[in-house]
Amino acid sequence: MRTQIRHYFLNAVLFSIATCSSVPCFPQSGGQTHPWMNPTLSPDDRASLVVKKMTLDEKITLLHGTGMEGLGPVSPLAAQSNGGAGYVVGIPRLGIPAIQMSDAAYGVCKSGENGRYSTALPANVGAAASWDLDAAYAYGALIGRELRAQGYNMSLGGGVDITREPRNGRTFEYLGEDPILAGKMVGALMKGEQAQHVIGDLKHYAFNDQESGRTAVNVNIDQRAGRESDLLAFEIGLEDSNAAAVMCSYNRVNGAYACENKYLLTDVLKKDWKFKGFVVSDWGATHSTAKASAAGLDHEEPAWIFYGNDLKKAVESGQVPLAEVDEHVHRILWTMFASGVIDDPPRKSVVDVEGGLEIAQRMEEQSAVLLKNDGQLPLDAEIHSIAVIGPHADVGMISGGGSAQVDPPGGNAIMPPGQGATEWGVPIWFPTSPLKSIRAKVPGAQVQFNSGSDPGSAAALAKTADVAIVFAYQWESEDMDLRSLSLPENQDDLIAKVAAANPRTIVVLETGSPVTMPWVDQVSAILEAWYGGSRGSNAVANILFGDVNPSAKLPVTFPKSEADLPHLTIVKPPKKTTDADSQGWRRTAAGLPAFQVAYDEGVKVGYKWYDAENKPVLFPFGYGLSYTTYSYANLKVAVGKNPRVSFTVTNTGSRAGAEIAEVYASLPAAAAEPPKRLVGWSKVKLDPGESKEVTVEVAAKYLSIFSVEKDGWQLLPGEYTFMVGGSSQNLPLKEAVTLR
C-alpha cells in the first residue's frame, strides 16, 4: 500500500509539473496572484515585472529549445513537448507557461504522427493568388484555431520571402513576387492567426530565396534593392499584423549569417521598424553566442548549442552583458503577454473538421487561376464522355513537402492503407480525388481514367471522349530546388499527345511555382490549381463545371523560358556541405564554407524584371481569366499625402463575378526604377451589367524609393503615372500627375 501511495504521489507531482509547463499555474502569495498576471497592465510592464524576479538560469531557459534529433542534443525535458517542431520550457514558479511551437505554413504539421487531424489549406502561393485579404485572414484564423485545439501556442508559418528565384523549392510556401501583395497578404494571414491567441511568426528573415546550399550561401544584395524587395514585404507584414515573432534564416547576407546580422536584426527590424517581439533562429541557424546575442538574436532553436551553458558562462565572464540577456527575455515575455497565450492558454479540443474543409474548399475556389479558355469552359453538365488523365488523378492531389507538410487523413493517398505515413522527401497526395469529383458532377456521363504512364494509351482514350482533362503536377519541398520549370516525368509529352488526339483538352496544373508550357497552343483550357488542399478536387470540379466563376490572378509571372530568368541557373555549393551522419549539425553550427550568390538584378524582381528587360512572358503577373468580362473607365487621381485613385469597373458579361482591379504606378525618371510597380488593388464583386466606383488609397511609401544616403524612404518630386486594369500587362486606364 505504501508503494502504491508513493507511486500515486510521484505521478501526481509529475502531472503537476507537466501541467504547469504547458498551462499557467499561478502560485498564490498571501492570497494574491503574481502582479504580472493583472491583464490591465501593459505587456511591457508585465514582462518587466517578471524579469526582475527571474534567476539567470530561468532567463536562459527561455532563450533556447530542448532539442531535436539530428539537429542538436535532446534534453529529457523535450518529453514534455506536444510533438511540434520546438518546445521552450516554462517557469512554473512564476506562472510562465511553456511555448509549444508547430510548423504551420498551410496547416498544422505532424498531426498524423501525433494522432490528430489537421486541415490542409491550398498552398500559400495559392492564397496569394486570391488577392483577398479577408480570405487570408480566414486562412490564418483556421490555422490558429487548429493549433490551439492541438495544444500549440506558437505558429512557425508566415513565409514571405519574395519569389526572386521561381525554382526555389519553397516557392509554394511564400506569397509571390511582389512585396506589397506578399506583405499585405501575410499581414492579414498573421492577423487571423494571432486573433486566436497564438504567437504568429514571419519567416525566413531574410533573402532565403533558394534552398540549394541554404546553410552556406552568402547572398550579396545592395541595400536599396533589399529594402525595396524582400524586406519591404516583411515590413508591410509586420505593420499590418504586429506579428510577435520573426524567424531569421539559414543563409548569410552580405557576409554575415542572417541570425547574427546586426543590420537585419537590430538596425532594420528592431530600430527602424520598432519590432517589439522576439527573433527566433531557424532550426540550426545559430552559429555563435556573443556575436548573435549582440546582433539581436533572442532565441535559439531547436537546442542550446550556443544559448545554454555557453551563454551563461559568457554572462558570468562579462562577455555578454546581463542587460542584453534581459532584453532577449523581456521580448519573449512581452510576446507571450501581448499575444494572449498566458491569459488565454490553448486547451486541447476536437477540431471542426467539416468547418475546416469548407474553408479550404472556398479558399481553393478563390485561388485557382484560369490561364487559358478557348470557350471550352465551363463544361456542360450534359456532356456524354470525359477522359480524366494524369498520375494518381483517380485517388488524390499532391501537396507541398518539407516542414510545411500536413499529414493527410489515412496517409498518403497513393499508397496502400497503413503504408502511407508521411516521410521527409517523399511526395504526399491528399485523398481528394479529381476522378470522383468529376464523376459526381456528371453522374450520367461516361468518365474514364488513364494514369498517363503510357502516353499512347492515354491519347487513345482521349480520342474517344468529348473532352479530355489532364491533371499534371510538379512537386516542391523544403531542402531542394527544382531542376527546372518543366513538368517532370515526361508530362509535357503526355499533354502534347493527348491534345493532338483531342483538341478539346483541358490541363489542370498542380504546382507550387510557374511552369513552362511547350503545349500551350495545343490545348483548349488551362487551370492553375496550385496545391489544392484537403478539398482541392471538389473546388476544381466546381470551377470546371461553372458552379464557381474563377476570379484568382497570378502572384508570380510565368516566363516563356528559363532562359528569360534573371539567373539562368541556380548557383550551388561547389561541394557537399553537410554530412548525413547524426553529428552533421556540429559542422553546420560551426559554419560551413560560404559560396556566393549575387542578386545583381536589384529591384527588378518578377514582373519588374520582364518589363525592364522587354522580355515577353507566357502569362504575366496579375493575370487571370473569368467566365465573364470586365471594362474600366473614369480614372481620377486625387493628389494628397496618400493619393486616391478612383475608377469604374463594369461587369460586361452575363455572369456574376469578382474582378481584381489592379493599380500600378510609374515613378519619375530620376528614381531609376523599373517601368511600373503594383501600388494597390481592390477585389470587386459585380452582378451582370453592374458597375461600381472603386477607390484605392495608395500609401506614399509604395510610391517611394529607399534612399541609402538618407537611410529612409523618399518620395521624389516629379511626374507619376497611375495605371489601372486587370493585369500587369492589361492597363487600359492611365493618368499622369505631379507629386511634390
TrEMBL record:
Keywords: Carbohydrate metabolism, Glycosidase, Hydrolase. Belongs to the glycosyl hydrolase 3 family. Signal peptide: none annotated. It comes from Candidatus Sulfotelmatobacter kueseliae. This is Beta-glucosidase. Pfam families: Fn3-like (PF14310), Glyco_hydro_3 (PF00933), Glyco_hydro_3_C (PF01915). Residues 659-728 form the Fibronectin type III-like domain. PANTHER family: BETA-GLUCOSIDASE. The keyword Signal does not apply. GO terms for molecular function: beta-glucosidase activity. Its EC number is 3.2.1.21. It comes from the Bacteria. It is an enzyme of class 3 (hydrolase). The keyword Ligase does not apply. One of its GO terms (biological process) is carbohydrate metabolic process.
